[in-house]
Amino acid sequence: MKPIQVGLMGIGVVGAGTFGVLKRNQEEIQRRAGRGIAITMVADLDVARAQSIVGEGVQVVNDARAIIANPEIDIVIELIGGYGIAKTLVLEAIAAGKHVVTANKALLAVHGTEIFAAASAKGVMVAFEAAVAGGIPIIKALREGLTANQIQWVAGIINGTTNFILSEMRDKGLDFALVLKEAQRLGYAEADPTFDIEGVDAAHKATLMCSIAFGIPVQFDKAYVEGITKLGASDIKYAEQLGYRIKLLGIAKRRQADAAKNLPAGVELRVHPCLIPAKRLIANVEGAMNAVMVQGDAVGTTLYYGKGAGSEPTASAVIADLVDVTRLHTADAANRVPHLAFQPSSLSDMPILPMGDVLTAYYLRLRVADQAGVLAKVTGILASAGINIDAVLQREADEVAGEGNVPQTDLIILTHDCVEAHMNTALAQMQALPTVLAPIVRIRKEELA
Ligand code: HSE
What we know:
- By secondary structure, the chain is an alpha/beta fold.
- It has three domains: 4-135 and 311-344, NAD(P)-binding Rossmann-like Domain (Rossmann fold, 3-Layer(aba) Sandwich); 139-308 and 350-355, Dihydrodipicolinate Reductase, domain 2; 358-445, ACT domain (Alpha-Beta Plaits, 2-Layer Sandwich), CATH 3.30.70.
- 36% of the residues lie in helices and 24% in strands.
- It has helices at 13-24, 26-33, 47-54, 65-69, 85-95, 105-122, 138-145, 160-172, 176-185, 194-197, 200-214, 233-241, 311-328, 374-384, 420-431, and strands spanning 4-9, 37-43, 59-61, 73-78, 99-102, 126-127, 151-157, 224-225, 244-255, 266-277, 289-296, 300-307, 359-369, 389-394, 408-415, 418-419, 441-445.
- Strands 7, 8, 9, 10, 11, 12, 13, 14, 15, 16 and 17 form an eleven-stranded mixed β-sheet that branches. Strands 3-2-1-4-5-6 form a six-stranded parallel β-sheet, with helices on both faces.
- Helix 1 (13-24) packs across helix 13 (311-328) and helix 8 packs across helix 9 (176-185).
- The longest helix has 18 residues, at 105-122.
- It starts with a strand and ends with a strand.
- The protein binds L-homoserine (HSE).
């Protein structure tokens, strides 16, 4: 049988890796796919550079629409990124009856509903293993490997840049801004790192995992997103003293209704810095590595670890999708694995909960005047909000630099799970106390057990 022909849109780091790995391992890949897979056309604005990567045997064009117009091409790989021209081209490729393989998490998290509907109507596949956690086959695990389970929660370190920064902050005791500069110098962080450090990239990935885990439409606009820019070295140090590490987690959690707390059933979808027990394996994922934990009712807790970015790790995921699409390309669309794991007609309308309804535990750091009665006032406010304290740590006043003549100290409080809205009320009341001298730091805490 003739190799299946593939057109590649955008040959940057991942595209070059995909071309290279496909070529290097072509024999092995063909034995697995049952058919050769050949990138026969590449579209890139820099034609000369692209041609130097792929060699003379591959047609290089600067107009991606030439790929879509080529009837010989069955699969389009979209590695342009963003949701501008990439969205238009993906929809045009689908309309032309081509399968699409993409690493574009932003596009699918924001426009996935429209794109998957168009693909289903046309009977083509949109495969996106490379969009979440790079080389880790987490989409495959969630969609297929764990298909027997009711997934209870997914929690992952799904942004390498921020994990690198947090690891450096902990190792070197440095503040965020300094480490970010170093990360940019070393090429871990982009010149414009906003999507990474503000948690947006992780939220795109968490949105996709959430949909596949629970069979709900992609709803990036309902995700709670908080990055790592406000984290201080002192919070990382205090967390450590209490037996925790701070990681940026993407969390998707199924929640039953709780009549006693007046909380509805739904799904929590959130990205924010999080204290996790230092003894968990995932707490020890360092540098730019990624890891995802999934809790299923039958399987229990599982953990997936690997490189979340980079040329060949991401190419590994792109090619896995190429092989899947090649195997299933002639199959009846109804017998393929559905885009979001559940049959499109069986997607649920289980709501994504507002952040105020989220149930979680907290780390609080209060810079307070070292005076009689301060602790009593703070704990009184927590008690009246129904918030149960788990642990308290207070530094001796002279360990904390004070200003003027007022001795001051850091008061660190860990709470048990409570409703976020109750915590917000308590925080506002504590912040209003004259003896609380600086904005209170609040970091959520998950046991992941
Ligand atoms: N910028 C991402 C990261 C990789 O730092 O993990 C691509 O999503």
